[in-house]
Amino acid sequence: MNIAGTQIEQTAALTGSTLLDRIFAITSGISLSQVRDITGLCAPTLQNWIKRGWVSPPVNKKYNIDQVARMMIINALRDSMSLDSIAFLMKYINGDANSRLDDIIPESRLYFYFCVINEKSENVISDKKSTELLIDEICSDYKESVPGAKQRLKNALEIMVCSYRAALYKKEAEKMISRIREIHSL
Prior knowledge:
By secondary structure, the protein is an all-alpha fold. Helices cover 60% and strands 0% of the residues. It has helices at residues 16-23, 32-39, 43-51, 65-77, 83-94, 107-121, 128-138, 149-184. Helix 4 (65-77) crosses helix 6 (107-121), helix 6 (107-121) packs across helix 7 (128-138) and helix 6 (107-121) packs across helix 8 (149-184).
């Protein structure tokens, strides 16, 4: 299985919760071609997201950790949510992509929480209460920057996890259909 929002294989040593730290351990920014290699997205798609204001533009042709995290989140959710819904969700969490002043959490931290929740739940559908408890546990260290921010974060994470799981189940169903087609030549 790939790490959420990437085309990088998840292993015991490399998970979504460790990926960004490893990438940015030795650099403060990566190029468009490196983002493409990580996400599998084409340059016009990424440039369109910037043009629409969903991701802030690079500085000196380099993307920082939060820009890359935001792209990976959008990419992870787009198989099961419309881009407009994802854009709304990102704005609900952090307002304008071009301003850090209205953020309630850095996107890199949001991506970390998202990946840890998925890793701990092993990407299986669980009941709503179990998911909420896991989100509470993962977000226990989060400090609100404005009143109500923690609840907004929890709401967003619940939507993100549900959407990502739906995409995983959709992919699994497509594999099952392919196997049946191969066997029955329909």
